[in-house]
Amino acid sequence: MYYLIITIFIICATLLFLLFSYPVFSYLYGVFFPKSIKCDLNYIPQVSIIVACYNEERYIKEKIETLLSPENWIAGSQLILVSTGSSDRTNEILSQFEQKEGVNIIYGKRMTKIEALNDAVSLAKYEILVFSDCRQYMKPGSIKQLISYLADESVGTVSCTMMDTVERPSFFRRLYLYLAKIDSRHGSSLNLYGALYAQRKSVFRPIPNHLLFDDFFVAVSTLSQQKRLVQAPEAILYDVPFNTYYNRERIERLARGLLIFFFNNYKMVRLIPLPIRLRLLIYKYLKILLPVIVIIWFICFVLLFGNIIPFIFWIIPIGVIIILSLFHKIRNYLFLIIRIQVFFFYALFGYIFLNRRFKYWDKLRVRRESAAIAK
After folding, report:
1. DSSP single-letter state for residue 105
2. How many Å apart are CA 171 and CA 322, to the nearest integer?
3. What is the CATH number assigned to the segment(s) 1-375?
4. Measured between alpha carbons, how far is 184 from 103 in angstroms, rounded to an integer?
5. Per-position b or e across 36-62, b if 16+ CB within 10 A of its CB
6. What's the rounded Cα separation, in Å, for the pair 245 and 366?
7. Does the pLDDT of residue 361 top 60, yes or no?
8. d(Cα 335, Cα 329) in Å, to the nearest integer?
9. 0.70 exceeded by the pTM?
């Protein structure tokens, strides 16, 4: 029994080390084994832009006008708009663009976003596909920035860069962006923002409707075809702050979506080259298991060393945490980390023991901060 506890303790410690050392190893790998990306702003082929919308009367007109603006639109391109059974003024607004050259509007029945995307791709005329959501504000010129990275034949998919609708992105948003940047430098990023990305039609694979996340499927599908997934730092989309966006419902959906994907599409994951596959499992799945790993590690630690380490040892880390929490910003980060881990644990417990594997999720609706967006 003693040796079993030691083994579990070592395994948990190793997993924690892999997760928390990931940024360091990724940075070092990018420094010593860089893999250049050919980015050519003169590469401007005609593209098929796809937007699926449902009851988007608040955002759809601005989104269409942004996509058709001279900064983003490429002459001769195609804009496919799919209304998935909208019941508000979305269809009325779409009808105002029916006569626009290059605009194709589909007034469909009620369907999921994934079904709409699959149908729209079958109508796409061009090799380069650009997918966009309605809600977020796009920095002018972002479409052309995305496409410029596809001048590199090794690149299959290009993700935008997601920024907070505040002057300075939060620490966690900056960390995610930094990881995507250094991962892209030495091979492929593991982040794909489904709100705006470009992909070769030859790389596109129909997205299974049972999934919660189309963007994660696209990322894994790209990597499984030995194509690179990179982030375009200049293609910027503005969204709500990280702390606001990742609420309990969103985190539970994230955990549930990743688990559903893993157990239903592991054959695709196995096609990813081993080094990238290991990074994917560490980066995406260890963070879901983090609260469980920490709890198990702590229990093993107490069983192994509880009678050896003096009481003062337990007081010191608690005291450090209390002192750090006196600083407002650090306290907010600590609370956010704890909150996220609690939600992950709740979602994991529900998925395994309570059969909470449903796909339904009320669409997140938030107000954009217009003053911040203007920046």
Report:
1. E
2. 21
3. 3.90.550.10
4. 33
5. ebebeeeebeebbbbbbbbbbbbbbbe
6. 9
7. no
8. 10
9. yes
With CA atoms as reference, report the closest residue to 204 among 264, 126, 144: 126
Cα–Cα dist 330/336, whole Å: 10
Distance CA 329, CA 222 (A): 38
For 50, phi and psi rounded to 5 degrees? -120, 130
Q: Do residues 186 and 29 touch, judged by C-beta distance below 8 A? A: yes
Structure tokens at 155: 């690149």
- Look at residues 158, 178, 172, 154 and name the one whose alpha carbon lies nearest to residue 38: 154
Beta strands in 192-248 (DSSP E): 196-200, 228-239
Edge-to-edge strands, sheet with 155-164: 103-108, 78-84, 47-53, 128-132, 196-200, 155-164, 228-239, 137-138
Instruction: Fill in the amino acid letter for 1.
Output: M
How far, in Å, CA of 16 to CA of 294, rounded? 8
Render pLDDT for 285-329 as a digit per residue (tens, 0 to 9).
998 898 899 999 989 988 888 777 666 666 766 677 677 667 766
The per-residue pLDDT for range 22-43, each reduced to its tens digit, is 888 888 887 888 888 889 999 9
Secondary element (H or E) of residue 274: helix 274-280
CA nearest neighbour of 222 among 143, 149, 122, 155: 155
Domain definitions of the chain by residue range: 1-375
Task: Give residue 375's pLDDT.
Answer: 39
Residue type at position 338: I
Q: Which residue has the tokens 């910027």?
A: 236
